[in-house]
């Protein structure tokens, strides 16, 4: 079980590292900027989660996460060198997959260390969105989580579905798959059909 979760965690880190690398390419950063942006996107949320849970930070204990980040960044750079174009839709899709991976992994880790379902959903959401938030702030972009898009909301919906499956006594594997699928589907659907929460507009004020 722990081995399987470890590989899923590595995959989530790699996917978010791809997202960070694509953003670095968009912003014309140098090699150091690529590594920094890929790293903060990939491990920022998990770092916050572990600090809140008062646990050893995962990447300090296991250096394989850095190899996953560097490998994902390198593969993305090679692909971009060949294609010579910035695929915005791929950045959004990569971000959606990373969001779903990290949401279920953060939630599962919180539950395994005794967090209540409500706190586990909150920590899963933090794990998923915080790295992307740091990425966007560094790049002087309005973070997706603050734009009204179904971003953090997708994590909350997926997390609530995970908890519902958990209380139906489904296996951990099943809960994670269901939570991942719901989070990803909600996010991709929001991107395709432009679902979003109401946005505060000062023009409507008297």
Automatic annotation (TrEMBL):
<feature type="transmembrane region" description="Helical">
    <location>
        <begin position="150"/>
        <end position="167"/>
    </location>
</feature>
<dbReference type="Pfam" id="PF03458">
    <property type="entry name" value="Gly_transporter"/>
</dbReference>
<protein>
    <submittedName>
        <fullName>Trimeric intracellular cation channel family protein</fullName>
    </submittedName>
</protein>
<feature type="domain" description="Glycine transporter">
    <location>
        <begin position="7"/>
        <end position="79"/>
    </location>
</feature>
<keyword id="KW-1003">Cell membrane</keyword>
<dbReference type="InterPro" id="IPR005115">
    <property type="entry name" value="Gly_transporter"/>
</dbReference>
<feature type="transmembrane region" description="Helical">
    <location>
        <begin position="32"/>
        <end position="52"/>
    </location>
</feature>
<feature type="transmembrane region" description="Helical">
    <location>
        <begin position="6"/>
        <end position="25"/>
    </location>
</feature>
<feature type="domain" description="Glycine transporter">
    <location>
        <begin position="93"/>
        <end position="164"/>
    </location>
</feature>
<keyword id="KW-0812">Transmembrane</keyword>
<comment type="similarity">
    <text>Belongs to the UPF0126 family.</text>
</comment>
<keyword id="KW-0472">Membrane</keyword>
<keyword id="KW-1133">Transmembrane helix</keyword>
<feature type="transmembrane region" description="Helical">
    <location>
        <begin position="118"/>
        <end position="138"/>
    </location>
</feature>
<feature type="transmembrane region" description="Helical">
    <location>
        <begin position="173"/>
        <end position="190"/>
    </location>
</feature>
<feature type="transmembrane region" description="Helical">
    <location>
        <begin position="64"/>
        <end position="82"/>
    </location>
</feature>
């Amino acid at each position: 079980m722990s081995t399987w979760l470890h590989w899923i965690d590595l995959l989530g880190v790699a996917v978010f590292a791809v997202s960070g690398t694509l953003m670095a390419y968009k912003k014309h950063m140098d090699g150091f900027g690529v590594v920094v942006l890929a790293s903060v996107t990939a491990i920022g949320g998990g770092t916050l989660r572990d600090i809140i849970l008062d646990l050893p930070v995962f990447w300090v204990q296991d250096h394989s996460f850095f190899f996953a980040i560097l490998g994902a960044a390198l593969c993305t750079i090679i692909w971009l060198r060949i294609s010579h174009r910035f695929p915005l839709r791929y950045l959004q899709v990569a971000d959606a997959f990373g969001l779903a991976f990290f949401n279920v992994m953060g939630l599962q880790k919180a539950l395994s260390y005794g967090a209540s379902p409500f706190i586990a959903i909150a920590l899963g959401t933090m794990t998923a969105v915080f790295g992307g938030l740091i990425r966007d702030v560094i790049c002087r972009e309005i973070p997706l989580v603050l734009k009204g898009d179904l971003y953090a909301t997708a994590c909350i919906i997926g997390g609530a579905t995970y908890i519902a499956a958990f209380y139906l006594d489904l296996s951990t594997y099943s809960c994670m798959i269901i939570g991942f699928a719901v989070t990803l589907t909600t996010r991709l659907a929001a991107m395709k059909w432009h679902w979003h929460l109401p946005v505060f507009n000062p023009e409507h004020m008297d």
